[in-house]
Every structure is written in C-alpha cells, then in structure tokens.
Amino acid sequence: MTTMKYHLLFLGLLLFLGGSCRKTVPQHPTEEVQGTLLIHMQIDDRVDYLSKADPSAPQLSTFTLDILQDESLLKRLSPIGNSDQEISLDPGTYTIRAYSADFSTPAFDTPVYSDETQVDIQSGSTTPANLVCTQSNAGVRILYAESFQQAHTSYSAQIVQNDIGLSYMDEDATRTGYFLPGQATLILTVDGTEYRQELTLQAQHIYTLTIQDEPLPTGNLSVNMTVDNRYLEEDIQVYFPIEPTTPEPPTDDTREVLYRENFGTHATSGTNVIEYAGYWEDPSVKYSGSLMVKLPDNVSSGYPGASGGCSIFYPLARDFTAAGINTSGATSLQLSFGISNETGVPPSTTDITVTMTPDDAEIPSPVQLPLSITSYGSWSQITASSGIPASESLTLNIHANVTQLLIDDLCITGIR
C-alpha cells in the first residue's frame, strides 16, 4: 500500500526584468536602443517548505543566475547576492536560468532547486518575467521494517543511476540520497544474495522505501508505486521475496581472488613505484609508472576490502601498470579498486581510463573497460564487470585523466 503525505516542496523565486531608455535620445526614431534587465529576487512568504529531510531552505543570495542567448552564456551571477542589479541587454530573446547548485550525479543530502524561462527584451521597453524554483531532483530514503531486521543477519541497499551508485550503509544508512529524475536501480543485498528492482523517480519528490518480508506469487522483488503529482513525499512499501526464483549471482564463496594488491604499509613517507620492490603482495607481477606509493592523510576506508594503508598517488595525469596477471581459465571476471582525490573533489569514472592487454595474444590489443562507481564517503569504489580477458599474462593499465588521485586495493576475481 502506498501512503501519501502532503508536502509543498518548492521555493518561490521571483525575477523582475525591466527596461529603461538611455538618457540620450537617439537621433533616428527607428534606431534600437538597449533595454535594461532588472533582477530582483525574493522568497514568496506564502510558500511553506516542509521537507523532513531538509529543514531549512537555501538562501537566495547563494543562487546562480545565468543569462543565455542561442544557448551561449552571456552573463553569470554566482552567487547572485542580496542586491538588485541592472544589466543592459540588446533587444532579443534570452533564456534566464536560476539554480541553487549544479547537480549531475547522485549525492547524499543535496536537494537542488532550479527553473528557467525565456524573455523577449524590446527596445526601450520593460519585460517582466517570473521564475518559481522547485526541487529539480528526487530524494530517496530507505527504511527496514522491524520484522525484516529480525529475520535477516545482513542486509544493505544501494541505488545506482547512470553507473554511479550511492550505498546506504553504516552512517549513510538513514541519509537521504538525491538522484536525477528518471530511471534508477535499487539493489538489495540480503544474507549474501543480491536482488534488483527498477525505480522511476520524479523531480520534487521525496521517496521513503520501506523494506519488509512478504512472499509474492511471482517470487520477484516488487515495488508498488502509485504517484499522484500533488503529493511531494511518498511512503513506498518494498516487498522482499522469501524464496527468490531468479538465479543467484556468484557470491564471495564461489569467487576466487586471482590478483590482489593493497600496496602495504612500508611507504609512509612516499616511495617511487620502481623502488618498491620486495613489498608487493604478488612478486610475480611487474609494476611500472612515474608514480609514488605513499601513506596518505586520507587512507582508504568505507568500501568492501578497504585496507587503510598505503596507496598509489597520481600527482599528475600519468599511468600505473601491473603486468603478468594470470586470469586464464576464469569466467565472470571482475576488477575493483578504491579511488579518492586529495583535493576532496568526489571522483568519477571519467577521472580515469582503465585498459587490459592480453600479453600472450598473437597480436596484443588493449581493451578499455566500462566502469561503474559507488561512493562510500571520502573514498569510492570502481568496478568493471565486463571486458576483462582470460589470459595467462595480462597487463592492467590505469591512466589518470586528472591530478591528485589516490588508488588502493586492486582486486581481480573470477570463477574457475
């Protein structure tokens, strides 16, 4: 059953655009003069802001205002500040866009408000415009029924969108994650078994997913979602099947670790990769790259298998290579490793390029791996579940496309 709660979750943002003539009268009556864009922002105090996840509204002074023409940015006010501003513009059609923050990937506790409109600036005339900034992303909370918690020894949830996931674990278990409107995948891992369910998320909605046990005729995980656009907060019951009929994915018990490297703890002050001989976990693998093994201030943590010791540090956009990895005879190969950035900027899959080259092939050719990423706070975990060749001698290359990256806990698993 779906329980709806009435919540008004929007912010009134009024923009008034005005025009005034120049003090100098043009010599020709038909000559066009500039108009004046008068920007005034205020909160409509008749609007209630009632989201339980976010008890305070963003400050209007922190919003960004963009003025565009033909999709080209002409003017940006960031932040817009508290004062009214006048901007002279030539006659024409403009897009006025206001937003509280950029938002392109899932993140916890990040509601975003935005709106845009088109205006026609006439020569020497005033053109009013009105923008109402509402929440442009969707929030998701996850709760577990008490009976569900008592019936299972381990459970966790993850929501993935566009190959980027948020894990509702440990201190993040009760937080509100925010996603772009559209499709996302709920992944439940219960007692070592993984279940998936597609979700459709709408902007200006806060979804509360309550996980509980209930056998369904189909034996599949089901989410009952009935959405009325008037309701901005929804309680959704997610029924977990007692007897799943779908094939179980490989578990840690059936997988074999084929290669692992956690970089040890011996390079506390930093050591070049080529000088770190004797401290690698697998001495048969050859390492290269103009990089450093070091113990960072922010040691790896959060993701499964985080070792918390030394890491590979990329001061610049460079390559790290591990050659001689044996994956022969294995199927369902998977690569994973931790990633962070010393600048504090959350990493993404575009920050790196990962390739695998089978050295024993007649014509060795690097294969670029498709990557997904899951955030675990200051560290994230990269995963590649396809494209890895089975080879007696495989070369792994990780190229950084940005600077200040940290890489830790390389691991390749498979089934033999």
Structural domain count: 3
What would the average pLDDT be, to the nearest integer?
Answer: 77
The biggest beta sheet, please?
Answer: 12 strands, mixed
CATH topology of the largest domain: Jelly Rolls
Beta-strand residue fraction? 35-45%
Using the 3D structure, state the CATH architecture of the largest domain. Answer: Sandwich
Helix content: under 10%
List unreliable stretches of 5+ residues: 1-30, 41-55, 216-232, 242-247
Q: Any idea of the CATH class of the largest domain?
A: Mainly Beta
How many strands appear in the DSSP assignment?
32
Polypeptide structure, described:
The chain is an all-beta fold and 416 residues long. It folds into three domains: 7-135, Immunoglobulin-like, CATH 2.60.40; 138-240, Immunoglobulin-like, CATH 2.60.40; 256-415, Jelly Rolls. The protein contains one helix and 32 strands. Strands 12, 13, 15, 16, 20, 21, 23, 24, 26, 29, 30 and 32 form a twelve-stranded mixed sheet that branches. Strands 1, 8, 11, 14, 17, 18 and 19 form a seven-stranded mixed sheet that branches. It has a six-stranded antiparallel sheet with strand order 2-10-9-7-4-5, with no helix packed on it. A hairpin with an 8-residue loop joins strand 27 (352-358) and strand 28. The radius of gyration is 27 Å and the shape is globular. The two termini are 45 Å apart.
